[in-house]
Amino acid sequence: MSTPTLSGQRPRTCRACGKKFEYPVKGNAATRHHCEDCVAVPAETRKILERLSNRVTQLENQLRRLQEKPPVPPAA
Ligand SMILES: [Zn+2]
Hints:
Layout: E1 11-13, E2 20-22, H1 36-39, H2 43-68
Antiparallel strand pairs: 1-2
The structure holds zinc ion (ZN).
């Protein structure tokens, strides 16, 4: 399942802000886990961003689940 692809970059998702970005890109400071915007952010601040980003992802998943299956109406 894990075939290394030498050509063609896979879009990556930034751990801190959730932005999709290409990696590696020549002349771009982005790392494997962080887009070029978040690379410039101090590590401690980035940690907080990652925590918030995780929460947003969880909330998005929950929201999607709720939208797919509306909650059972409360029994009267
Ligand atoms: Zn980012």
